[in-house]
Design brief:
With about 280 residues, the protein is an alpha/beta fold. It has a single domain, classed as Ribokinase (UDP-N-acetylmuramoyl-L-alanine:D-glutamate ligase). It is built from nine helices and 13 strands. The protein has helices at about 35-45, 60-75, 135-150, 160-170, 170-180, 190-195, 200-205, 245-255, 260-285, and strands at about 1-5, 10-15, 30-35, 50-60, 75-80, 90-95, 100-105, 125-130, 155-160, 185-190, 210-215, 215-220, 230. It has a nine-stranded mixed beta sheet with strand order 5-4-1-8-9-10-11-12-13, sandwiched between helices. The protein has a four-stranded mixed beta sheet with strand order 3-2-6-7. α4 runs parallel beside α6. The longest helix is centred in the last third of the chain and has 22 residues, at about 260-285. The protein is globular.
């Protein structure tokens, strides 16, 4: 089972039909759905047929209960604390599918006193960088990563946001990754650029680094081996890339747990991401 610790929020999707008119009206379509990086990874894993568990905190409110019910409905396990106010993320989707996110994480960042039982039965603990930004969630994620290492559970980290990495500084990010003992680090092109020369398995203290490039090939760096370029799956009429990176992570980690090579797992990751993008784009029609 794949376990993911972090955010479960309500996404408010604002699909723009034209350029934003500052201080005036802009035509758009607004929808609501379940979001959060960790929750997205869990949903993608379950939709692809793998067992997964969400670990985190949501508000003790109707929205929080609805969000956890939605995860359970796709086959996920949930290990949640309920307190405070459920978070919301405004996702602005441009005509080309690119996203800009305005985040109010609220209760997500307040997860404290983790339960060792949350790790029972896991093959991998996945930690988005969002979960390492602020406490108490940061300390809970670090504690669970340490427990996972002690129990022989693989730990993976998604670098999540170039802006957050720059604010934290690449040296501090690398130090945290060494502290965590992550086996796998996943990033997109912008996040890798923010890390600069540190974006290698050796510098990050990890075994595998995978850098995604959207619809272009990903690059797999495995310690002691030459880099491998893995082609992506071409898609037409992409309108919404929300959750694509999280779906990629789900496919990669679950395929590795099934015994696939890193390159084969990356091919699976591209397929799972393509399915997620196609589903999100259809939902916006």
């Amino acid at each position: 089972m794949l376990g993911c610790v972090g955010d479960l929020v309500e996404d408010v999707i604002v699909r723009l039909h034209e350029e934003i008119h500052a201080a005036s009206d802009t035509r758009s379509t607004v929808t609501r759905r379940r979001g959060g990086s960790a929750a997205n990874v869990v949903e993608s894993a379950c939709r692809a047929g793998w067992p997964a568990r969400f670990i985190g905190q949501v508000g003790d409110d109707p929205t929080g209960r609805s969000l956890t019910d939605q995860l359970v409905a796709v086959g996920a396990e949930v290990a949640v604390r309920r307190a405070g106010r459920t978070g919301t993320v405004i996702v602005l989707v441009a005509a080309d599918g690119e996203r800009t996110m305005l985040a109010d994480r609220a209760a997500c960042t307040e997860l404290a006193d983790p339960d060792p039982a949350w790790l029972d039965g896991l093959h991998t603990l996945h930690v988005p960088w969002y979960s390492l930004m602020v406490g108490p969630l940061r300390e809970s994620a670090l504690t669970m990563a340490r427990w996972a290492g002690e129990r022989g559970i693989r730990v993976s980290v998604d670098l999540s946001s170039s802006a957050l990495l720059t604010a934290a500084t690449p040296d501090a990010v690398a130090a945290d990754l060494h502290r965590i003992g992550a086996d796998i680090v996943v990033a997109n092109e912008q996040e890798a650029a923010a890390m600069g020369a540190l974006m290698t398995p050796e510098a990050l203290g990890t075994r595998i680094v995978v850098v995604k490039h959207g619809g272009d090939p990903a690059v797999v760096s495995e310690r002691g081996r030459a880099d491998v370029v893995v082609p992506a799956i071409g898609l037409d009429d992409v309108r919404d890339t929300t959750g694509a990176g999280d779906a990629f992570a789900a496919g990669l980690l679950c395929a590795l747990a099934d015994g696939a090579s890193v390159v084969d797992a990356c091919e699976t990751a591209h397929r799972v991401a393509a399915e997620a993008v196609s589903r999100a784009s259809r939902a916006g029609d």
